[in-house]
Design a protein that fits this description.
This protein has three domains: 5-51, Orthogonal Bundle (434 Repressor (Amino-terminal Domain)); 57-151 and 291-312, Rossmann fold; 154-288 and 316-338, Response regulator (Rossmann fold, 3-Layer(aba) Sandwich), CATH 3.40.50.2300. The chain is 40% helix and 18% strand. Helix 4 (72-88) crosses helix 12 (290-302) and helix 7 packs across helix 8 (183-198). Helix 6 (124-132) links the parallel strand 3 and strand 4 (137-140). The protein has helices at 5-12, 16-23, 31-44, 72-88, 104-108, 124-132, 154-167, 183-198, 217-230, 244-256, 274-278, 290-302, and strands at 57-63, 92-98, 115-119, 137-140, 148-152, 173-177, 208-210, 238-241, 266-268, 285-287, 310-313, 315-319, 334-338. The strands form three sheets. It has a six-stranded parallel sheet, sandwiched between helices. The chain has a four-stranded parallel sheet with strand order 7-6-8-9, with helices on both faces. Strands 10-12-13 form a three-stranded antiparallel sheet, covered by helices on one side. It is built from twelve helices and 13 strands. The chain is α/β, with parallel strands linked by helices and 339 residues long. GO terms for molecular function: DNA binding. This is LacI family DNA-binding transcriptional regulator. It comes from Burkholderia sola. Pfam families: LacI (PF00356), Peripla_BP_3 (PF13377). Residues 3-57 form the HTH lacI-type domain.
Length: 339
C-alpha cells in the first residue's frame, strides 16, 4: 500500500488538513512550514495527485441568447470541441442553457458537475456564484479577472480586418457592434478603433453603431445598416461587423438599396460561420477555430498548475468577394494569418 496523507501528517507532526493545505498551495501556512511538509511528502514518496478529486462530469453552461440561430453555429462547434476533449478523458459533458433571471445553481444541481465550462456572455453575478462553488471553472469566449479563460485574439482579428480594408483604399469604414458587455464584442470594437490610430487616421464615432439590445441580432444589424446609410454626410465605403450574422444582414440591406458589393461598399464579418462562404457575394471574414476553443478550454480546466491561466488563440483572415478591391480579378478565397 502506498504512502497516504495520514503518513505525511504523522511524519510532519501536523494535522491532515495542514498537509492538504501545504500540498495544494493554499493560504494559511508560513512558507517554512509549507516547504517542510512538501519535502517530507517527497521523501515519503507521496503523490499529491491523490488530493485531486477526479473530474467525471462537466457542465457546459451557455446563455439562452447563444442557443439560437444565428449564434448557435458558433457555439455548437465550441461544444463539439468540449465533447471531444471530454470523451478522450472519460468525462461526461452535459449542456445547460440559462437565462438572465434563472437560478443557475439550482438548475445545475441535477447535473451534479465536478467542473464547469462557461461559453460566451453570461451575467457577472452568475460568474461570481459559479466561482464561489469552489468547483474547477473555465471561461470560453469570455473573460473575468482571476479566472481561467480561453479566447480568440479578438482585437488583433479586428485590426487585421481593418488593415485589409484600408489597404484596398477604403477610408470611411463603419463598425456594427453589439453590447460591450460581451467580452469578444468589446475587444473587436477596440481593435477597430486601434486600427485608425495605427494608420494615423482620425476615428469618426458617427460610423460606429450598436445594435439595439431589444432586437434580435438579424433585425438589429439590418436597422444598424439602414441607420448608417440614412445618416447625413458621406456614406460608408466599407462595413466591419462584429460577427458574420450581422455582416450578412448588413449585406442584404445594401443589396436591397441597390448598392454594388464590393464596388460601392465592402463588407467584412467575423467567425467564418458556414453561411459566410455561401453568401452572394461570399463574405470576407475572420476564421476562428471554434472546436479548438472548446478543446483548449477543457485542457486548461484540467491543468494542475498551468503556466498561463489566460489563453489567446490566433485568427485567420479569409478574403472573399465581399471586400475585393473594385476592378480586381475575381477570386474565391485567399488567406492571411496572424498569430
Amino acid at each position: 500500500m502506498g504512502t497516504t496523507i495520514r503518513d505525511v501528517a504523522r511524519a510532519a507532526e501536523v494535522s491532515i488538513g495542514t498537509v492538504s493545505r501545504a500540498l495544494k498551495n493554499q493560504p494559511g501556512l508560513s512558507e517554512a512550514t509549507r516547504a517542510r511538509i512538501v519535502e517530507i511528502a517527497r521523501q515519503l514518496g507521496y503523490d499529491p495527485a491523490q488530493l485531486r478529486p477526479r473530474i467525471r462530469r462537466l457542465t457546459f453552461l451557455l446563455h439562452r441568447q447563444h442557443n439560437r440561430f444565428p449564434a448557435s453555429p458558433f457555439f455548437s462547434h465550441v461544444l463539439h470541441g468540449v465533447e471531444d476533449a471530454c470523451r478522450e478523458r472519460g468525462i461526461v459533458p452535459t449542456l445547460l442553457t440559462v437565462g438572465p433571471n434563472d437560478d443557475v445553481l439550482r438548475q445545475m444541481r441535477p447535473h451534479a458537475p465536478d467542473a464547469i465550462a462557461v461559453a460566451g456572455f453570461i451575467e457577472p453575478e452568475t460568474i461570481e456564484a459559479l466561482a464561489a462553488t469552489g468547483r474547477p471553472l473555465v471561461l470560453i469566449d469570455l473573460w473575468a479577472p482571476g479566472l481561467r479563460s480561453v479566447n480568440i485574439d479578438n482585437a488583433t482579428g479586428a485590426a487585421l480586418a481593418m488593415r485589409h480594408l484600408l489597404a484596398t483604399g477604403r477610408s470611411r469604414i463603419a463598425f456594427i457592434g453589439g453590447s460591450a458587455a460581451h467580452y469578444s464584442i468589446a475587444q473587436r470594437a477596440i481593435g477597430y478603433r486601434r486600427a485608425f490610430f495605427e494608420a494615423g487616421r482620425l476615428f469618426d464615432p458617427a460610423y460606429e453603431v450598436t445594435i439595439d439590445a431589444g432586437l434580435d441580432p438579424d433585425t438589429g444589424a439590418s436597422r444598424a445598416m439602414e441607420q448608417l446609410l440614412d445618416a447625413p454626410g458621406p456614406r460608408p465605403d466599407a462595413v466591419f461587423a462584429y460577427n458574420d450574422a450581422a455582416a450578412l444582414a448588413a449585406q442584404r440591406v445594401c443589396i436591397a438599396r441597390g448598392l454594388r458589393i464590393p464596388d460601392d461598399i465592402a463588407i467584412v464579418g467575423f467567425d467564418d460561420i458556414p453561411a459566410a462562404a455561401h453568401a452572394n457575394p461570399p463574405l470576407t471574414t475572420l476564421a476562428v477555430d471554434k472546436e479548438a476553443l472548446g478543446r483548449r478550454g477543457v485542457e486548461l480546466l484540467l491543468a494542475e498548475s498551468p503556466e498561463r491561466t489566460e489563453i489567446s488563440l490566433p485568427v485567420e483572415l479569409i478574403v472573399r468577394a465581399s471586400s475585393q478591391p473594385a476592378g480586381s480579378p475575381a477570386f474565391d478565397t485567399a488567406t492571411v494569418q496572424e498569430s
